[in-house]
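Lab notebook, bench 4. The sequencing result for the construct came back, and we need a structural model before the next group meeting so we can plan mutations. Quick request posted to the team channel:

Model the 3D structure of this chain.
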Amino acid sequence: MNRALHLAFKSPLIALHQDCDRFIAMIPCKRRIAIVIAMSASLVLVAPPGRGDDASSPEQHFPAFRLGAFADIVLAHPDKQGKVDYESGELDVYTSAQLNNNWSVLGEGLVQHAGSSENPDLTPKSDLQFNLERLYVAYETSDRLRVEFGQIHTGIVQWNEREHRSRFLQTPIDVPSIANRESQGGAWPLHFTGAWASGSVPGSLGATYGAGLGAARGSERDDIQPFYRRGTSPAALFSVGVAPDSLTGFEAGAAGYAGRIRVQGQKTLRELDSTLYSSFVRGGIELRGEWAHMVHSEVGGDAAFVTRGWYLLGSWRLSGRWKPFRPYLFIDHLHVAAGEQYLRDVHNQNAWASGVRWDVNSRLAIKGDFRTQLFASPHREGLFRLEVALAF
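Done. Here's the predicted structure in token form:
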């Protein structure tokens, strides 16, 4: 990539992050969650009805633009006296443009109120963060081939790839620990800049594939490096999956990621990640599970660190007049390798949550549950939680 294109792509992103950080720093902390809610409400007022699809128009006009958003707020009340309530919220805004039959562009940003509702042992925080989630150009010829270029999801964790961040789309309140964003205490590399090719293979097996090449992680865990930065190490990833026609609703697959992490003042780490996932969704039944394995080993050294995580989700939609309700059980586990400095601010997790999701309509979901976890203390902590999630 020549220098002119480099500057044209890089400078606006840097300026956008800096301007947002300066603006957020000027806002009193107690007012920031109110701003998230106000932004969500304003999008409801300005968003056009429906999803932008006009079924009555058989002719597609280009370019076609679409703006959408997801928002949620979570309120949590500890089950023990002496603890304080927690609150958190997110606003996920995305925009896309279909330039012609083959080319499209997508951009997505996340505004998050960084509360501590998931971690009752932590001191409550009040902060507002802005993060660029995705920004890429895509070329698609058919279901057999789609290529994305820019900042994209790695797909190493299937939950993150399927839900695309929004808590509205997922059944439970929680995001699994292995699917936490890098800036939210997540261990796995969920984003990178580079190219990703994916598609489906004709046949009754329902096979899919994906392969990508881009920039490995930076010296800090949440440093998403541009691929054109001098000294950046390459990273490669792949994925395969099946969804057999003979077993409607069943999916299974695996993914792998390999790269090198150049840590300042320390030896370079070789990273090898692998994940396995499976799901069965049919007739109101939802069963999902995923296992993730991460190995960081020193290049030219003997030290090796192994981190593992997994989750299980089961839910079912009720029938008759209770059809809008979906009870669920969610189990979440993460074990971080002892002495792993690169993951020093990632915490072990051993939790489960049981609750119900109520789909009020196609754009509003209310969830309530009880979550218990063993976090940073030798005893379990519990939380009663309520989430209101919106789609625009």
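The longest strand covers residues 64-78.
Will bring this to the meeting.
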